[in-house]
Amino acid sequence: MAQLLSMLVEGASLGAVYALVALGIVVIYKSSSVVNFAQPSLLMFGTYVTASAYSLHGLSFWVALPLGVAAAAVLAVLVDRVLVARFRRTQAVVAASIMTIGVDVVLLTEVDRRIGSQILTTGDPWGNEVVRFLGIGVAEARIAALVVSALLLVLFQLWLHRSDFGVAMRATAEDPETASLMGIRLGRVSATAWAVAGALAVCAGLFIVAYPSPGLDTSVEAVALRALPAAIIGGLDSTTGAIAGGLLVGLSEVLVRGYGEHLAFLGQGFEEAAPYVLMLVVLLARPAGLFGIREAVRV
Amino acid sequence: MTAPGARLQVSDVTVRFAGVTALSGVTFTAEPGTIHAVIGPNGAGKSSLFNVLSGIYKPAEGSVRVDGSELIGLAPHRVTALGVGRAFQNASMFAGLTVEENLLLGRHRLGRGGVFAAGLRLPYARRSEREARAKVREVAEFLGVDHLLALPAAELPYGEAKRVDIARALATEPRLLLLDEPAAGMHTHEKVEVRDTIRRIAAERQITVLLVEHDMGLVMGISEQVTVLDFGQVVTTGPPGRVTSDEAVIAAYLGRAGAAQKARSESQPPS
Amino acid sequence: MFKAALTSSKQARAGVRWRVPVAVVAGVVLLAIPLYADRFWLNLGSFAFAAAIGAVGLMILVGRVGQLSLAHSFFLAVGAYGYIWLSSPATEESWGLGLPSLAAAVVAVALAGLAGLAFSPLAGRLKGIYLGVASLALVFIGQHVLFTAEPLTGGYNGRNVPELSIGSFQVFGVEPELSLFGVPLRQAERGWYVTLLILALTTVFAVLVLRSRVGRAFAAIRDGEVHAAALGVRVARYRSVAFTLSSVYAGLAGVLLALLFERVVPEYWDLFLSLEYLAMVVIGGQASVAGAIAGAAFVSSLPLLLQRYSDAIPGMGGAVSNFGPAYVAQILYGGMIVLILFYEPKGLAALATRARKALTPRRPVAADRTPAA
């Protein structure tokens, strides 16, 4: 029981981190109908900026963090304005999404080259001391990830519901043409979404490199990529779904790893495939994801 | 190609989207081989009705019968197989294909041959393809678009695209033809052509035509029956003469939407 | 508007005139190359032809139906490992059926097709990019199986690929000795001719399918699925047909690649391989058969060429640099995906069209050809 409880806490912590990345994907999708496959590379890029500012240039974490967040946000806006915006008029969303795959390849290749075989730490303040409560022990970094991510998610949801941007984004998702006629500037909505997505990705990246991996190395991108199944599981057009999807992916990963000995027939390391299996199961039952809106059209 | 027209019976059709009722208890019958118009102001539910009739929307309640066969619940391709052909509001061509290929898509359900038959050039697939091309040429000649066959569909002027669209719907060999605003955005002389075309379809091929159209002159000139929709409900159904003098129609439709109608016809885009 | 339309249909007809002599010349050159080129170039060609088969399959799905798939590497792996499993004799550590190798190759391709068909509940219902993300699952599940199902795949160390032979004729080997115009036809030469032949056959098949009612249904789904459905096209069915067809092509390419590699290891068949195939299709112009083949030639040769000439390229050679051939190749085709979609979505296919236009003498379009409206 204690084992299960500690796995649930761990899974929720990892899941909340995935949710941050997935939320970025959803916000971009809602504001421009583009699936941003470059989200993992934005995470890697911003996290690399923070980690190298700390590890290689000796800056403090509290200076390195905003640097990384800002760098990813600026790069994301550049990708949107320079590359993706070109497709807005023609609504060629498949082409625009494929283009983000190209961006992802270029960016990841370059960040990977810079990282090389190093493992860079970010100098984050949360340590690895084990905190005991309710009869279980959880590493401090994981508690921090859970608390900070949950806080960010709540603040973000509030902002989406209250702010002009939130209204504009939902209107754009509903019907871009009408939104545009009503004075919503689609370019600005999209750029804001990209900036937010980049920033969120880096916040998530900082927790991923604190735990489960020992620092930033090239394996982090495979972890970051699991935000895509998270976004799909929840439904690409639902911010609530992104959070639910993130949690489900985090939980599935931790539970499969935790009960590894009972799942030996599935082979070692199945936790890395588990989120994708979960995605297939959800899609079979609900093609639009758990919280996604089903189109009325049947073909 | 002379399949007799079908009787269309629409009874108590109700469509709801997320709490909004788009159609409510819509009931009317289109007799075989006649031209039956559905009119109403924007948002009255005409497009929803057409989407129900081609199997794209599934209504919450109601029944639609084509010569007695229930259409509700069938997938769109089965609806086509029942003999329901449709031309679209904005004459959407498949932009990556030629005009001939667009028309051949109308013949799709009547053709034969899958991947293997096509890739291995099996005789029956080639025969089916030859027949389809001959039929397409015939339909194209019937509508006077045969000189356009080799053109890329994306390059068609709007007026021509509307005619190709009707030809494509006819190529499915329908017994019931749904025409969604066939004269929208057309000049006066083009509208005359559209009117003659629709008359020929009904007269020469005995196809039942269900017509959604804003141009009252066209509607009243060719329709045997007119159904008036407003707020998703049938106001009345009857011959044009009676409908235009119906108090409820004048109040609900012509009175309110007349101004909008006028504005619309003045701001039509050049084709 | 009419003028433009007539001009382009004229050019299309002019294109047909050009196509035959160009194809004949290209065919003669391709057949003659093994008589002159050395092993390096022949191997380069064989890999390119095998990859091109896979690229044509992905092109049908992405360019003609508008469905994105990132699972191509999975189906390539099904073909490759399927062939190994079916053709190898069983041993204590590894499974095998010990089928005759030709039968094994055919069944392995069919297996890839079956795997594609099994995915049709999703391949038929999911649209465009959604399918792209869903198909990611196959890559990661596939990778997991390749690394852990040791009796089947050999795990981390991989497995040897049994030779393909028909009777005593080694299709990719040296027995019996053959020669053409005094040039012995050994592994490299046979590899070239066999992969070229299979590429030619599968290309013709693909072109015929794309020109048929099936190909038109594909294009209609891409250009407007609702309208296609209203005309009687079974959208979900054709989507899954296209997915299955593309997985058959991938399976065939996988079998050939395995035969050329002689030993396969799991990390080759990862997500990155799928992205390489996507790059081939995008570079080729997404919807063009010839473009996909050219894109495959480019993407599959690039790392080999960079490796061979890395010493000659400043900054790339030497042990200290980490700008290795793999780095440069990835940056190049990642970048090309971006640049081509940005500047010329029709890719290499558009270059060919332009070249043809430049070579075709323009004739003025007579005004009286304009049909009466």
TrEMBL record, chain A:
It is found in: Cell membrane. Signal peptide: none annotated. InterPro entries: ABC_transp_permease (IPR001851), BCAA_transport_permease (IPR052157). Coiled coil: none annotated. CDD domains: TM_PBP1_LivH_like (cd06582). Its main location: membrane. GO terms for molecular function: transmembrane transporter activity. It is a multi-pass membrane protein. Pfam families: BPD_transp_2. The chain crosses the membrane at residues 12-29, 61-80, 92-111, 131-160, 191-211. GO terms for biological process: amino acid transport. Keywords: Amino-acid transport, Cell membrane, Membrane, Transmembrane, Transmembrane helix, Transport. The keyword Zinc does not apply. GO terms for cellular component: plasma membrane. Belongs to the binding-protein-dependent transport system permease family. LivHM subfamily. This is Branched-chain amino acid ABC transporter permease.
UniProtKB/TrEMBL annotation, chain B:
GO terms for cellular component: plasma membrane. The keyword Chaperone does not apply. It comes from the Bacteria. Residues 8-256 form the ABC transporter domain. InterPro entries: AAA+_ATPase (IPR003593), ABC_AA/LPS_Transport (IPR051120), ABC_transporter-like_ATP-bd (IPR003439), BCA_ABC_TP_C (IPR032823), P-loop_NTPase (IPR027417). GO terms for molecular function: ATP binding; ATP hydrolysis activity. It holds the Pfam family ABC_tran. This is ABC transporter ATP-binding protein.
From TrEMBL, chain C:
GO terms for cellular component: plasma membrane. It is a multi-pass membrane protein. Keywords: Cell membrane, Membrane, Transmembrane, Transmembrane helix. It is found in: Cell membrane. InterPro entries: ABC_transp_permease (IPR001851), LivM-like (IPR043428). The keyword Transmembrane applies. One of its GO terms (molecular function) is branched-chain amino acid transmembrane transporter activity. Its main location: membrane. The chain crosses the membrane at residues 20-37, 43-62, 69-86, 98-117, 129-147, 191-210, 241-261, 281-306, 326-343. It comes from the Bacteria. PANTHER family: ABC TRANSPORTER PERMEASE PROTEIN, HIGH-AFFINITY BRANCHED-CHAIN AMINO ACID TRANSPORT SYSTEM PERMEASE. This is Branched-chain amino acid ABC transporter permease. It comes from Spongiactinospora gelatinilytica.
